[in-house]
């Protein structure tokens, strides 16, 4: 089978664990060279070493790590610079790094809010801006930028008042970036996964009653796995989605929605098109 990303250069924030890790592995299998950002600590470095082992010797030559905290603007610049220094350009960028700590709204401390805001939204802004700057300057221009948002950006969650606004911001960032960068050949899209079992919610899902409730409201009858997001991420990075931009793929409960926005400068008119595939769900008051 032909590799969908053969010869492409990719960088992924938060790529040593969870969804980012699954995307990195599939990108490698599809022929891409991949730079993975992870937090600069021993635990994250250990996760990267296990990623190397899982990728195997044949693919490790196409995998590098760039440590740093995405909340620091310098981390995004460093990730892009190391990627380009190693392989000459940047074709694909996945802004995936994020945190989620469940908490009651009334007891959420300012420090917890700031941590989520700086990592999830400011970190995404810095990362997307750094990637886009490189993609606009290189020759040939262009590339694909994917922001990992969340279905929580659309429906909210009682224990996520400090988290859901940041993921809504990521979705909005990708929509606006698509409009700003399209003329440079840069496509921007978002992934909105539902409940995916990762290290972020492992402790929360130890509650058997809550896990059963979550699984029961999903038509497929199971929670998502990080690998479930790898396929959509490959599609959005590949030429198969060459005319998909300003869109978002929602992984809960199996709906893909794509928005295209076309602007006419002289008339100042705007059109929006929406395509839906899958099943529609009843409105949910909370995913927390």
From TrEMBL:
Lineage, uppermost ranks: Eukaryota, Fungi, Dikarya, Ascomycota, Pezizomycotina
Q: What is this protein called?
A: L-rhamnose-1-dehydrogenase
- State the similarity comment: Belongs to the short-chain dehydrogenases/reductases (SDR) family.
Q: Which GO terms describe its molecular function?
A: oxidoreductase activity, acting on the CH-OH group of donors, NAD or NADP as acceptor; quinone binding
Protein's UniProt keywords contain S-adenosyl-L-methionine: no
Its keywords, alphabetically, are: NADP, Oxidoreductase, Rhamnose metabolism
- Give the UniProt record's GO annotations in the biological process aspect: fatty acid biosynthetic process; rhamnose catabolic process
Give the InterPro entries listed for this entry: NAD(P)-bd_dom_sf, SDR_fam
Q: Does the keyword Ion transport belong to this entry? A: no
